[in-house]
Amino acid sequence: MLLHARRVVDAVAGHRNLAAPAAAHFKLVSPPPRIYDDLLELDAPCGGVNTTMARTPFPIKGGKVAFAAYHPSAAMVFNIAFTQQPIAQADFAAKWYPDTTIGPVGNYNYDVDLSNLPQAKDGVNATLQLMYNGGDGMLYQCTDIVLSSSLSTGGTKNAAVAAMLPAGAAAAAAALSALALIL
Ligand SMILES: [Cu+2]
């Protein structure tokens, strides 16, 4: 554990040496992450917790994932594991959304359609993984879900986050000034 902690601290020290350090990286909002800890986010594959947590019922088609991004731009990868207890990156062998680059700072809602994945059946346990690289290392968040074919839409959509979706320059400026308050 000590070695592990030192590795995280070293990585964070590197973070502080950057020209524009951020107080936060990114945060999965909904479904809720296993854990949200800024320092542990560097820890693959789930940002600090390798045991599954309470599972959120999640529709096979029509699900929502909401997260907040605190870097001006970032590369993201969205994987899914169908193993009961994913403990390694290799367990996240499929994708729930194509790789993409996001920006600016703000809140994001993604519509999720898992119906093309052959493992995605009613009652199946799965784990969604978000990988985020905003320039200071690869960061991880995970959420444990149980798939449902009877849920249609929504269930997990965060209305407050939807209302804050960046819709243009004004929203971007507001998000950046909010970040300045954090710094
Ligand atoms: Cu960061």
Quickly list its features.
binds copper (II) ion; Immunoglobulin-like; five-stranded mixed β-sheet; alpha+beta; three-stranded antiparallel β-sheet; single chain; 183 residues
Brief sketch in words of this structure:
The protein is α+β, with helices and mostly antiparallel strands.
Task: Please describe what this structure looks like.
Mean pLDDT is 80; it is low at 1-22 and 156-183. The chain has one domain (2-182): Immunoglobulin-like, CATH 2.60.40.2550. Strand 7 (125-133) and strand 8 (138-148) form a beta hairpin. The protein is α+β, with helices and mostly antiparallel strands and 183 residues long. The protein is globular. Helix content is 19%, strand content 34%. The chain contains 3 helices and 8 strands. The two termini are 30 Å apart. The chain has a 5-stranded mixed β-sheet with strand order 2-8-7-4-5, with no helix packed on it. It has a 3-stranded antiparallel β-sheet with strand order 1-3-6. Bound molecules: copper (II) ion. Residues 15, 22, 25, 71, 134, 136 line the site of copper (II) ion (CU). Keywords: Cell membrane, Glycoprotein, Lipoprotein, Membrane, Signal, Transmembrane, Transmembrane helix. The chain crosses the membrane at residues 159-182.
